[in-house]
Structure formats: C-alpha cells, structure tokens
Amino acid sequence: MLPFQTMLLLDRTLEQPLYRQVAGGLLGALQRGLLAPGTRLPGSRALAQQLGLNRQTVIVAYDELVAQGWLESVPRRGLFVPRNLPQAAPQPLLAAGARPAYPARTAFAFESAVELPPLLLSARPALAFNDGFPDVRLAPLEALTRAYRTIARRPSAARYLRYGSPQGAAHLRAVLADDLRASRGLAIGPDNVLITRGSQQAIFLTAHLLLRPGDAVIVGETNYFAANAAFRHQGAHLLTVPVDAHGLDVEAVERLCQQRPVRLLYVTPHHHHPTTVTLRADRRLQLLRLAAAHGFAILEDDYDFDFHYASSPILPLASADSHGSVIYVGSLGKSLAPALRAGYLVAPPDLVRAATELRRLLDRQGDSLLEEALAELYRSGELHRHLRKARRIYEGRRDVLCALLHEHLPGAVHFEKPRGGLAVWARFAPQIALKALAQACQRRGLLLSDGTYYEGGQPNQNAARLGFASLNETELSEAVTILAASVQDLQASRPQLPG
Ligand SMILES: Cc1ncc(COP(=O)(O)O)c(C=O)c1O
Fold first, then answer.
1. CATH code given to domain 142-381
2. Measured on CA atoms in the order 372, 374, 378, 382, is the torsion positive or negative?
3. For residue 132, which atom of ligand 1 is closest to its CA?
4. DSSP state at residue 454
C-alpha cells in the first residue's frame, strides 16, 4: 500500500475538517500523478487505520471524491481511479512531513499594472499623521445599523440582495441628487449620478473612458498621487502647472493649451491636494472658459467638500458649467468612513451611461444594502447631523494642531492654517530631511509620510500632510511631542561643521 500517511498530511489544528483534508490530499496525489488511472484505493478501514482516523471520516472523504467523479466505485471490487482520467507525469513523493508548497511565482509572464508608493498603514492602530482621514470613532455606526434594520424589516428587503443596478440604488441617486442640488448648486437629477465605490473608482472610470496613450492631462505640480497613477495607467502624458496660494496657475494652463491638444485637466478646487489651497473664484471661471475654448474635460475631485471652517464652502466648478465640460466626483469616505467605499460621479447622462457600462466590467454593482442604508441616513437627516458634529470637532482639532506646531516647532515647520479639509500642509525647514524625520518618528511610534506621496512638487519640497481629524486633543499633543523630539534627534545627529 502507498505511504498514505506521508502523502496525506493531516493537521488537526486547522479549522478545515479532517475528511476535507483527506479528500484534498487524495485529489492532490491524483493530480500529481501519484495515483495513476486504474489504481485501486485501500479500503476505508485500512486507510483509516493507516492514518489513525475514524473510519467514517475516510468514508465521507471517499464519497465526496466519488460524487465529484475523481474516484469510481466498482461493485464488489472497491474504489478505483477512473481509467479515463488523463495521466499526469508522476512526481517524487514529498519527504515525510513536507507540505506541498503553493507556487511562489506564476509560470507565465505578466506585467505589474501599477506602481504606487506603499500604503502608510499600521497593523495596529498607531499614532499617525495620516493624509487627512476622518476619525472613524465618530462615524454614526448606530444610525447606520438602525438604517440597515429598518430596511431588513421591509417586506421588499430581499430585493436588495439580488443583482441590482450598476448605476447604484435609485433611492440613493435621488436623495443624493437632491442634496447636491441644495448644498452645491448642481442642477442635476438621478440620471446624472453614478454611485461608485469611493471617488477613486470614479477617477479610474473617467481615466479609462477618456484617455488613450499619449493623451495630455494637466495636473498641479504636486497632485493627488492616485489620480496621477490612474492617468499614467492609461498611457496619458502628464503636464504639470504650478500651484500657488490661489490654486492652479490658470495662465500656465492656457499656455499649454496653445501648444498642444489637451484631453483632461484634473483639479481639487476646494482644497488642493496636497497643499490645501483653495482655487480662487476668477481662476475657476477661467478654467471653465478654457475648457470650452480648447475642448478639454475637467475632472473635478471635491473629496472634502463637507469640511470647511472659515466660511461657506465654495461652489463646485460643476455648478457653473453650462457647457458639459465637467465630470464631478465626490466621496462619502471622508464624510462617514473610508472603508464604507461609497462615492459618486456626476456628469451629463451620456457619460454616466458609458461609465456605468464600464463599471460593470470590473464591478457588477455596488453594495445595494449599504446604498439603501446611506439613502436612509440622508433622508432621516442623520448624515447632516453627523457632519455638523464632525465639522465642529475637526475645526477644534485643526486649531489645536496649528497651536501645538507653533509652540513646539517654531522655525522647523512652515504652514498656513487650512480653511478646510482634514490636514495641514507642513513644509519642513530644508535642514530637516523629511525621509530621515519620518524614520525618526516611526522609531518613536508615530507614522509620518516621508513625502513620497506628494510627488512632482518643487525640487526638495520637503513637505507632508499632517492629518489632524483622526487624532483627539491628547493624541495630537502626543504626536507633536514626538515630532518635536524627532526633529531634535535629527539636529543632534547632524555632523557639526568645524568651527
Ligand atoms: C484627493 C483625493 N481624491 C480621492 C480620494 C479617494 O477617496 P475614496 O476613498 O472616496 O476613494 C482621496 C483619498 O484620500 C483623496 O485624497
């Protein structure tokens, strides 16, 4: 009899039941050619004895393989490997105790689709100056679960578990269109809205629909790295324009348009990512005029519209677009919680239809239940209650962070207090190398971007976003203490020039 006890490696500590381990092991042996067609399997009693198992476990494993056609039962003779199975070349038996390894690499070549900087995440919730994420501890989970329960109790609840519309739940598109009309001046209805899994999906869909290799895309000199990556992924050629205290340099945009055809311009007018500056009103109107004159599309990413502290939010470019130039994307990731993966794309219906069809290729639809629950949060007013509360808290945290930076890092870090958003754009003095600073902070338990996310800026830009929203006052104070101590570490380790 074959040495089944070394061929079938059973592990009683696994969650997988033993009969499945036996069936899986036998199947592996069949596929590796160790059990050739026509081979007779040992009786269940004998195999159970060899493996130290209950006979019933082996019977169930055999039954499963017979049901799947991997073994055949011949009356009064026993169980056999069917003769019509193609024979694999026998491979050497594995050494006792060895586990067949899952291949570490594919046997075929392929190109890695994208190259992105590593995510700045920690396995455990650590102290982090993130890119500007919300405090998920404030997320209205209670209201959300209540909304789920309300929906689950409806007689029609099962409908949300079936395949639904790839454009997103009609109910959510309707309340969202109402909300965007009222709060952002967008003259839209539900047909203008595609619900996506976050604004990144909307950016990707736009890039895929509009861009072909060699197409020119204008972005800020520093720009949101994941948008740049989505454009490059389509083979687009990125042209950059400077960003000053009033946002994108629109005259530079015009000069580029005079030199060559431009297909798309990406802009975060409310708070430019990463520098947080707001695009001045005359520049917004000028961008719309340029788009109409030169025939390029504008992708307006209004990722943090909900968080403005000084005054009313500026209205989106899309609210003044009567020409059909603007594709507007937004997210509930910052308003509620990033992991909910809810965002939207707003555009004239022809583009929404095309984007919806494209979306079906990579994601048949969103999460209908979640979409219904979000619609309920809009309808009941819970979402706006949460936003009012979060805005107040984040404004306080912004002020605390700015005060702490002034107090503990005078001269080491330069910044303007942002009028909105969830992060401070901190420019470190040239002698404080950001990469070394990020490492020093990490050693002391604070995550800080080393600047790789903010590509393309001024040479030696030496700046990072300090997300303040997800840290409470105590945590902000700890984080700034670590930051200041890390700056001192660097200064202490700098070689002293001979006097
Ligand atoms: C400027 C900008 N756009 C888009 C996104 C993506 O957001 P979402 O989580 O909705 O995909 C982010 C996320 O941080 C962002 O900063």
1. 3.40.640.10
2. positive
3. 14
4. G
* Class at the top of the CATH hierarchy for domain 127-133+385-493: alpha beta
For residue 343 and ligand 1, the question of a CB distance below 6 A is answered with yes
**Per-residue confidence band for 330, with pLDDT thresholds at 50, 70 and 90:** very high
Q: Cα(285)–Cα(141) distance, rounded to whole angstroms?
A: 39
Distance 343 CA to ligand 1 centre (A): 9
Which pLDDT score, from 0 to 100, does residue 487 have?
95
Backbone angles phi, psi at 214, to 5 degrees: 90, -15
**Residue 408 in tokens:** 């503990």
Residues 272-314 have pLDDT tens digits of: 999 999 999 999 999 999 999 999 999 999 998 999 998 777 8
Cα 38 from chain centroid?
51
**Tokens read off for 109:** 């070549």
CB of residue 196 inside a 6 A radius of ligand 1: no
What single-letter DSSP state applies at residue 292?
H
What confidence score (pLDDT) does residue 269 get?
94
255's CB contacts (< 8 A; 6+ apart) are none
Backbone angles phi, psi at 17, to 5 degrees: -60, 155
Q: Is 273 in the pocket of ligand 1 (CB under 6 A)?
A: yes
The residue whose CA has the least distance to atom 3 of ligand 1 is 303
More confident residue, 33 or 57: 57
**Host H or E run for residue 49:** helix 44-51
- pLDDT of 462 reads 92
Q: Can you read off the two tokens belonging to residue 239?
A: 């042209």
Any ligand 1 atom below 6 A from CB of 224: yes
Residue 442 β-bridge partners: none
One of 2.40.30.200, 3.40.109.10, 1.10.10.10, 2.60.120.260 is the CATH number of 4-80, namely: 1.10.10.10
Residue 311, CA distances (Å) to 244, 417, 422, 478 in order:
21, 14, 16, 30
44 lines ligand 1 (CB under 6 A): no
